[in-house]
């Protein structure tokens, strides 16, 4: 038990990667074994995370469950892990969504072994970013998360996968270059990559590095960070990789891409940019709010303008992440004030909530795509009588995405709007246009797929007969739907952890 | 059980019923409606107990039932949610509980419980009837609704939303209930989702009300950030209100109170279908009739008015806001009444009359007639629920006749009806009570007393413009009400279906009778003290009780004969002319009011289509998706991509290929090759030649060695 609690984070972090290596030695034709092994392997980190959640003390200051191992002594970088309320929430989201994504992939028959291995490596990559307390480690895991996703899209994606995976890779790499440069500069400046140490020395550093004043160096690093994270979120107008990548990725890939990978960017803002650069953050908060508003509004209208069901859902992520960014902008604008803290609570909860509803939506699109081999909204129509259970689940999840009060999205959107309104009144008011349009595209999706006269093509007695959602697929949705409802009705259990972290961070 | 705890419990049974039906009992129709009606009955019981206990409290306005718990952590404080029963919510709870229960019971009969399954019915379409064989004859009878269980589930969720809204002590949970009802109206208006008209009406209802909701949400966050709370009892304190009234905002010179009030009021404009967001409500008639009653009487539209009555202390602070409220209400009342004149669909007439009556209540709030607004809200809920359920009963009877005769006609068109009073006596008499109450028939009906209260207040407050507008609307109301009664029930049948119409089952008529009792008698609890002859015989209980909600109790308007006589004249006059004009009209062609402008509802829908709907689609599909994202942003990206790839090919074509490949790479190869070619003759394979060469080399090396040694 002692070993467990003292190594909890590294167990959660490396178990998926170790499992992937074990998977490598399993016979490649035993589909069942590969699938169930992977699912089991991904459930252990989840169980450990639940344990972590129960052991975590929201009231205690600083990071908890810290672990530190020698890694690259020559440049003072160590494998330093730790969680606070902010990262804990994201770790929970990651370890929850990964098993679901794997369960959702049970229908994949093409090269199962590498597919499953990539997902496990991906999980380690994502978790590492959330747990890292060392900037170089942060960057390493940031990149580890990128590579598996590239191959997942490139190898298992749909028609336009080459273009989409290339765009995703190049775009994110473009951001990562700056990130690496920025981290190197900070490392050179402070002689360490440890986040806590850098934070402690941050203000006192003076003088010159490579002939430049330190203030200039810091500004360069600021912009390098901002660009890298902005691409990942994505912040408008860096968003166009998202609809392509999400649409072409296989279902489980889209689930994790929208569910977790987008959060990495927002997490970067919260963990690095805002705490290290309060002044710059304040100066550019208005610009950030403007871009957030653009994302919310244009994302929503873009979504409404789609004919491809999956693209419609992908664009909705742009809009929903815009709400996260609006919350971050408000927090940057008035750090320490209670309005800012409320907005920040909302932004972090919105990250979690979007993870649930976006993963659910992408999965549901996948369910119907697998059966009909089309995503074109005009080719569906009136499917509700054929698939009543699927229809009910789709409506429920759509409404969560719409932000219906009583479900999770409303709580976080309300908090962001509440916090941002007194600080960024005009932007918040304009954002309402996007929230209004959210209703339009959500209802468009339901209207085109489920309602209206039945498209007889799917009712014929031949191969086209549309079949109902099966038990495995319901099991993927059940945890998501339960959490959506629970957070909608009783958000305090998670919001309290977030709130206490926010109170200390900002 | 403490009253406070009981209040928490009131909204729960219907929502539990929703989950029970959806998850477990949906295959069993009888079990599903038992669960649904049982839940409604439990909530009704809870509401009645709370109501009776509320009556027993002296000065409930000062000492209301309250209870709250922590809900959201917000920085260093908690946002609390809770329940509140003060006089206003007590009287609203009373009518909500009654109407909801009646609608649940009525739905059993309306959806043909006990009838066989239809021949070709499918989920998503209204039932088409079933063929049965009796005594060797085949004939068609109404068939049970295929989605019967689902209907009760949705109705349960709807009831939950309304109860939650009424018992809330704060604007946020009120808004939650508000939005849940919005969702339910979407689900229920689009209940027969396979019909394109129903599907589109559902989307229209949701989107139109959502426009109002977005403004309302802004109002809520504004209020929350200005006062730090959303609890009614904390906001309506003297201090907070004074601060809100004196804070200025940059918009239209409104005070903070005025702007917040205006934003919240826009929510009401959407929800209570006031001009210019009224367009969704007539289309909402696509839903099954019990839904129309639910939306138009008991719950959703009432919620909008309830909200502005709730925030009256805040709303009344800024004279500009109040003027807007009064004007919107009065204009809507007249506007909708005019449109109602030319409608032939029985339910659409009622829909426009609902819009108009809500206009009365909104106008009443706007002129400061607090109690009169509540009064009309309650009486309207009873008589409008009655009228909708009555209309449903008529349509049901007509459909029965149509199935029997095999006619395919519009069972809702009043020009297909006629003479139904003999076929459907209970429906007829209850409809007359409801209609007369709507028209404000003197003394005997509840509608008279509540409408009269609004007239009296408008006149006493010097709001002559509002008074005249509302009076004109009242005349039109009485006129089209009598038109409807005359066309549907009096005279001779205009179709075979009407000849074979049949009275509906007890599950439908009993709710009609119960509601008719309230539609007639509820007015007697609010007779003004100074009313000639009758005043003072019964105490004006409603005024005393509801007035106690406000911290400064309002005073009754002084009695004046002018509003009373106006009220008498317009209601009796309207009814009389309605009968006179329509008693002999045989078909729509003879109706002189079928003017295109009115039939097309002043072309508002068409106008919105051109100005909002079309541009929005263009903006989304063409501007954002095609031009901005694919064109400009991806264009820039692709330019970068091309730039990189062009740089690459330039380097390849002009440096790599000529310099590296051809000069160094190929050049080295050429030189090597040439040398090799020249050297090839030495590799002859003849041992003698190799020996010779070796000898030469050895000699040369030896010579070199000697030379070097000598030098050393």
Polypeptide structure, described:
The complex is a heterodimer of chains A (506) and B (712). With 506 residues, chain A is mainly alpha-helical. Chain A has a domain at 284-506. Chain A has 19 helices and 4 strands. Chain A has helices at 2-6, 8-24, 31-55, 85-104, 112-131, 135-156, 161-190, 195-201, 214-232, 241-248, 251-276, 278-304, 309-333, 338-372, 388-402, 408-423, 425-449, 471-489, 492-505, and strands at residues 64-72, 77-83, 208-209, 212-213. In chain A, the strands form 2 sheets. A two-stranded antiparallel ribbon of chain A has the order 1-2. In chain A, strands 3-4 form a two-stranded antiparallel ribbon. Chain A is globular, with a radius of gyration of 22 Å. Chain A starts with a helix and ends with a helix. The mean pLDDT of chain A is 90. Chain B starts with a helix and ends with a helix. Chain B is elongated, with a radius of gyration of 38 Å. Chain B has 712 residues and is mostly helical. Chain B has 28 helices and 4 strands. Chain B has helices at residues 3-9, 12-25, 29-55, 87-110, 148-167, 171-189, 196-227, 232-235, 238-246, 256-271, 280-283, 289-298, 300-310, 312-315, 319-340, 346-366, 370-405, 420-423, 425-439, 446-460, 464-489, 496-499, 506-521, 541-547, 561-582, 596-599, 604-679, 687-711, and strands spanning 65-74, 77-85, 130-134, 137-141. Chain B has a two-stranded antiparallel ribbon. In chain B, strands 3-4 form a two-stranded antiparallel sheet. The chains are: A mainly alpha (506), B mainly alpha (712). Chains A and B meet through helix 7, helix 12, helix 14, helix 15 and helix 16 of A and strand 1, helix 6, helix 7 and helix 27 of B.
